[in-house]
Amino acid sequence: MKSKTPSESLTILTDLVLPSETNPLDSLFGGELLSRMDRACSIAARRHSKSIVVTASVNHVAFNKAVPVGSVLTVEAKVSRAFYSSMEIFVDVWMECLETGKPEKVNEGMYTFVAVDENGKPTQVPPILPETPLEKERFDAALRRKQLSLVLSGRMAPGEATELKKLFE
Ligand SMILES: CC(C)(COP(=O)(O)OP(=O)(O)OC[C@H]1O[C@@H](n2cnc3c(N)ncnc32)[C@H](O)[C@@H]1OP(=O)(O)O)[C@@H](O)C(=O)NCCC(=O)NCCS
User: Fold this and answer.
1) Span from the CA of 106 to the centroid of ligand 1 (angstroms)
2) What is the domain partition of the chain in residue ranges?
3) What is 6-130's CATH superfamily?
4) What's the gap in Å between 46 CA and the centre of ligand 1?
């Protein structure tokens, strides 16, 4: 299968934070943010694989900064690495400053999606060829994150997680 670059799957969703999407402190409800991230990741995974895709796991999400009601929020997702049927999608979240329009990074996350056929059976996806230094950094660390996710979900024995073990050597 021919390799594809992360930018070929780039997905950008921009939307307002409405009052119905906030918590009692008038900032964006965590579940709403996860949903926006999941949608952007799903589109990125679909663009990369040209297949039906399903969320296999949410590997990490950092809620670094509260997002007030009325904010303009941009969710930017790209495939960071592809394995056989699974893909890691890295998602960055930016809040637009009202006065300057400048984006401020408020959140990031990593999701795993799997490409499946019409019967839900995992199918092969194209490999990823990272281009920029950040894409290369995310590509290199993705196998470690995949092994951690597999260990935490009981799909891999800790002793088989070679990339994780290297961290402690
Ligand atoms: C995700 C799913 C397709 C995996 O199917 P499966 O029959 O267990 O298939 P496999 O064990 O071969 O796993 C398929 C791939 O997913 C990866 N995977 C599965 N669970 C994972 C997890 N928790 N973390 C990271 N990768 C995972 C496997 O490592 C494998 O990757 P690879 O093919 O790139 O090596 C299946 O569990 C499923 O359909 N889950 C429900 C998905 C869903 O409903 N999501 C929410 C709505 S979209």
Assistant:
1) 29
2) 6-130
3) Hotdog Thioesterase (3.10.129.10)
4) 15
The residue whose C-alpha atom lies closest to atom 28 belonging to ligand 1 is: 86
pLDDT digit string (tens) for 116-151?
A: 999 999 999 999 999 999 999 999 999 999 999 999
pTM of the model: 0.94
Residue 113 to residue 46: CA distance in whole angstroms: 9
pLDDT in tens, 6-51: 999 999 999 999 999 999 999 999 999 999 999 999 999 999 999 9
List the beta bridge partners of residue 62. 108
Cα-to-centroid distance, 42 and ligand 1 (Å)? 14
Would you state the pLDDT for residue 105?
Answer: 94
E strand map for 70-102: 72-82, 86-96
For 153, the token pair is: 């979900």
- Within 10 Å of residue 33's Cβ, how many Cβ atoms? 22
> pLDDT per residue over 72-116, tens digit each?
999 999 999 999 999 999 999 999 988 898 999 999 999 999 999
Distance 56 CA to ligand 1 centre (A): 5
**Residues with Cβ within 6 A of ligand 1?**
54-57, 83-86, 112, 114, 116, 120, 122, 146, 149-150, 153, 155
